[in-house]
Amino acid sequence: MQPDVEGIELLWDVAVELHDAAGLAAVADVLARAGINVDSVCLVRGPAPLTCHLLAADGANAADALARAGTPASTREVLVCVLQNRPGTLAAVSAALNVAGVTVDLLYQATDRGLVIGADDLAAARDAVVASGRLAARAGPTLPP
């Protein structure tokens, strides 16, 4: 699926299981040595194994580099949306996803890259985000509340 909408892109979520949070340094080193930029990372402390989500433009090469280093990884496309930075944006986008019947199983903010959405139907998720009316222009200033 091509996103076809300014402010929305498809990137790759690379998920790895770690025994503890210290394992992130080794994973990051493998990706750096392979020349793969990590646009965002999401790791929540909990019982081992921990699942670490890394956002990258090249999921296949990231997974391959990690596999060669003995760290299996799974990859999948995710939607990344640049949204307005103002009150009510998350509420509007979440409501639109609910109305569209999209099952979201991964959601985190990738700083200036945008909101990362992992879902069962990325095309429906894209349409719901557009319908929310909360997309922001990439190069534009933050909108006031």
Strand proportion: 25-35%
The biggest beta sheet, please?
6 strands, antiparallel
Biggest sheet, spatial arrangement of strands: 2-3-1-4-6-5
Q: Considering DSSP H and I runs of 4 or more, what fraction of the residues is helical?
A: 25-40%
Question: What can you tell me about this protein's structure?
Answer:
With 145 residues, the chain is of the alpha+beta class. It has two domains: 11-76, 2-Layer Sandwich (VC0802-like); 78-132. It is built from four helices and six strands; from the N terminus they run βαββαβαββα. It has helices at 23-33, 59-68, 89-99, 122-132; strands at 8-18, 40-43, 50-56, 73-81, 104-110, 114-119. It has a six-stranded antiparallel β-sheet with strand order 2-3-1-4-6-5. A hairpin with a 3-residue loop joins β5 (104-110) and β6 (114-119). The longest helix has 11 residues, at 23-33. Mean pLDDT is 89; it is low at 139-145.
Please describe the structure with a list of short key phrases separated by commas or semicolons.
VC0802-like; 145 residues; six-stranded antiparallel sheet; disordered C terminus; alpha+beta
